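Subject: for your reference before the review

Hello V.,

The reviewers asked for a structural picture of the protein, and I figured it would be easier to keep everything in one thread rather than splitting it across files. Below is the amino acid sequence we used in the manuscript, unchanged from the supplementary table.
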Amino acid sequence: MSISTLASKDIFTSDLDQLDQSFTYSQLIKEIVLELDYDAKAKADLGNYCRRRQTSDGGGTVSSLIDKFEQDYECHSPIWWYTCGSFLFGMLNQALRTQDTEALVKMGFVIRDIHRKIKELHDNATPRQLTVYRGQSMSADEFTKIRNNKDGLISFNNFLSTSIDRDVAYMFAESTLQNPQMMLLLFQIEIEPMVSRIPFAELKGDDCVFGSENEVLFSMHTIFRIREVTQIKEGFWNVELKLTSDNDRDLAHLTEQLRKEIKGGMASYRLGHLLIKMGKFKQAEEVLLKLINSVPNLMASYRLGHSLVKMGKFKQAEEVLLKLANSIPNRGRTYISSTTHQLGAINRENGNFQAALMFYYIALTTGLNSIPIDFRSIAITCNDIGLIHRELGNYLRALAYYQKALEYLEDPAINSDRLELATAYNNVGQVFQSMGAHSTALGFFRRTLAIEKEILPPNHPAFATVHNNIGTVHSLMGNHSLALQSYRETCRIEGRSLPTDHGTLVVTYNNLGEAHRSNGDYEVALQYYQKAIDIGERSLPENHPSIAAAYCNKAIVYFMKQDHWTAKKFFEKAREILEQTVPPDSPDLAIVYVHIGQVHVVNTDYFAALQFFRKALRIQKSCLLPNDLNLARTYACMAEAFYLLGNHLSAVKYIRLAIDIARQENTPAAKQLLEQYLHRFFSY
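And here is what came back from the structure prediction:
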């Protein structure tokens, strides 16, 4: 059973009227699934899907039930099929619990039919006050969340089956206990019929399989308030709930904002768009491909290309978008510009930066030749050209394109969408951050945050992005406590607004790990890095740079713990990923080269160390500002290697270069670095 409760009382929140983010996404999925069109093949498609899902154990019995469902579905009420103990009950509840969108789409017509039937019965019933009961088992952790949140909200994200007969619910709870570590719960639910926004119905006649149960069935996303939690006996608890019209206001605002962001077009298109936002790119690909094959849909093709890019399927994405571009008539220059713009994104993600720039320039030229010119789209393209140059280390060119984008977006006659302006400020901040101008970067990130606070609900994912960037700047400046504070805020927002396996969490956990590492909390840091790796390997394309960053950071911790063999293993893993995915002049690759060189130093292989330091230095000189602290670190590492080789003249040369840079930067990080260099070389 999928249950959303308020967040447990921790360091982030004590607000009792908070439901978790799964409520938002499952509600939006439900709304779209209820609108989807289902053809005559839907029943057979569901049957075939269910057969593929079955294991060999009991497969024959389940297969016969599926056959019966296909043959006799119209002979019974949809509620009858749900409550009769067929394969549908378990599969549907599991899909709702795990947000298995593939299964939900396949079973969409059943969900729709059950919901409509409950609503029909609810609308035709005479309102009366009821007390109903539900018995079930629950893990100790889940129960603790409920017990500690008296007067808070709880939502059941699936269809909720209850009984008017307390004894039936009591016996059912006892029958579910298979693990002594589980808790038994008897939910006692008070219903005031005029309160609920969600329909519920007493089941009678053809809708009721087991008439003696006096069953009451609620549709999905019914919200209750927790009144009392009392112990019946050892391991068995009574939980009093009251049906309520209350909602989590922040979550309702976020849900409405996301609803606006995916609005427009057919239900299948909106579902594909929502799945992209959830980071479920494979499912988005399947939904949009089906839509494109059934109905020519320009925006679906565009979204499909976007989803394929995120999955790392660059060749397929390029084919989809080239086909789209070729199918658009000459008068459709807006779509040509949009499509070539997406082709630029494909090549950027694939590391083909020159090809990416070519497509972006085509998009820019096409857009400038359109009548009328869409200056807002021109600004977005300039932003993305700037992004390419930033990734190439061409920071001044990147800044020029970002500033051109700002010219358009700051003009209210051209752009009324202040969120686009906020994004532009964020991009400018990132390029200043890359250039080492941390105070300037922080100013732009704060401007981004100010605009977003005016417009967005407080738990929108955009806030997480800017808090993450602010945390990174604080970390680079050596303000580790402020960095940790920002990263925790990022984590709190993402926990309220993103699915638990979203790829963005990889970056967040990486940064949290780095903040704890900087504070000397190595074991906590390793836990966060492993979380980042686990989510990345589940959610991101193979060999994604964010996974490499987690391996690199994990290696740094082992290096600091003097476990040099393990450190080298993880550094090499990071190197292997980055050399396959980023350009050869990537600053991230330079950082890994420096770390591998340091491992060679402690292993007394100084010539090998210098090879890696020189490779790093070549990259950093081409893309970093002359006073960047990363350059200072590389110079210091080279100085140490030369000193240990007995080449004292070269050692003095490079340590002076490192100290000169550290003295120019008036930040805690620079001062700490300067002290480290002086201490190290006076100790030789």
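For the response letter, the relevant points are probably these. The chain has a mean pLDDT of 78. The CA atoms of residues 80 and 207 lie 5 Å apart.

Happy to draft the paragraph if you're swamped.

O.
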